[in-house]
Amino acid sequence: MQLEKHKTLSNDIIIIDGLWGTGKSLLGPIISGMKRVEKVKIEHVYEYVSILHHLDKISPDAASLMLKIYVDMSQYKNLIGREINLRWGDDTGFAANPNGLRYVKRLFGGEGDQIIADINNNNLALNIMTHMLMLVAKPVFDAYGDRVKIVEMVRHPLYVVKHWYTHLQRFESPREFTVSIDHKGSKVPWFAAGWENEFVEANTMDKALLSIIKLYDWLDTSTKDAIAKGGSVHTISFESLTMTPNEPLQTLASFLGRQHHSRLPSILRKQKIPRNTISQGKGHASYGWSKKDSKKDEQQIYAQHLEFAKTNGSSGNMDKLQNLI
What's the rounded Cα separation, in Å, for the pair 14 and 38? Predict the structure, then answer.
């Protein structure tokens, strides 16, 4: 028995992706403001299905069916105003994204086949944010073909160490939702499958360093492989976006085939772009970011991050991190 969804929508699917701590949330409002693009949504189902496929826990046809059904259902719900995020401080909330009023108006609008026609005829792009999807994106490309465009945010590896360390400190929390495997009674993230012993035996900092070292290499390989097979992937560095945004924003618009919002400068100001130093803008305090960092020069910030990693990490893994840098 072969599972298949025979009729699907034809609109673009834009996926903002990145490893933990790469600053991909900065792209949400920027892309949401583009012509005929929906407000960004964080929906884990795409990465969950792809991870389960990677781990051989779900068949290719089941993965494809789930992805095709969910992506079309998600866009339909967007256009009729279901599941609008009213949390004022959320990166994906309507207040943090351009054109917020239109989402409120949809609460009082209609539904039905005319909505489907509007999505297809005007190529209204779905805009979603995922975590680490590019590592295991084959099911997504197989299901969506040329509908999908992945924008991958990357960042200097030293600047994500504190984020990874802080996240892994709370890895046992019931509020932590990473797909994980059981290894001799220990919780191990899915991406450590194959080096479970190394992960379990490491301290928290070495867990973070090992993950960064291995996943940066994995991401590089998977990105090149996807592009070689015809997948639409565009990489943006956090540093170029925040420090010299003009060229990255122009190439982003070209890649997506969409015009930026007429109020792009205002959107960028809210994201504190451009910056004089990398740490001068917004950040999540719960992952180690501090407003005090914005008052230091770049050399001080770099030295601070390096010392933090050295103090808690093994010399062997620090050498590997330096090679990666």
Answer: 10
**Quick one: how far is CA 10 from the chain centroid?**
23
pLDDT per 10-residue tile (average), the chain, 325 residues: 90 98 95 95 96 98 97 96 83 79 86 96 98 98 97 97 96 95 96 97 98 98 98 97 96 97 94 85 51 73 94 95 96
**Is 274 within 8 Å of 26 (Cβ atoms)?**
no
Question: What angle in degrees, to the nearest 10, is found between the helix axes of 113-121 and 60-79?
Answer: 100
C-alpha dist (Å) from residue 140 to 48, 65, 144, 218, 296: 11, 11, 6, 17, 41
**112 CB contacts (<8 Å, ≥6 apart)?**
none
Question: Which residue has 């068949």 as its token pair?
Answer: 59
CA distance 273 to 313: 32
Residue 163 vs residues 23, 57, 152, 309, 315: alpha-carbon distances, Å: 10, 29, 18, 11, 20
Q: Say what the pLDDT of residue 281 is.
A: 64
Q: What is the pLDDT of residue 287?
A: 46
Contacts by residues 306-310 (CB-CB < 8 Å, ≥ 24 positions apart):
306/158, 308/161, 308/162, 308/165, 309/158, 309/161, 309/205, 309/209
Question: Token digits for 94?
Answer: 């309507």
pTM score over 0.90: yes
Q: Long-range contacts for 115-121 (Cβ within 8 Å, ≥24 apart)?
A: 115/76, 115/79, 115/80, 116/9, 116/76, 118/79, 119/9, 119/11, 119/75, 119/76, 119/79, 120/9, 120/10, 120/11
**So what's the pLDDT on residue 293?**
58
The phi and psi torsions of 153 (rounded to 5 degrees) equal -90, 130
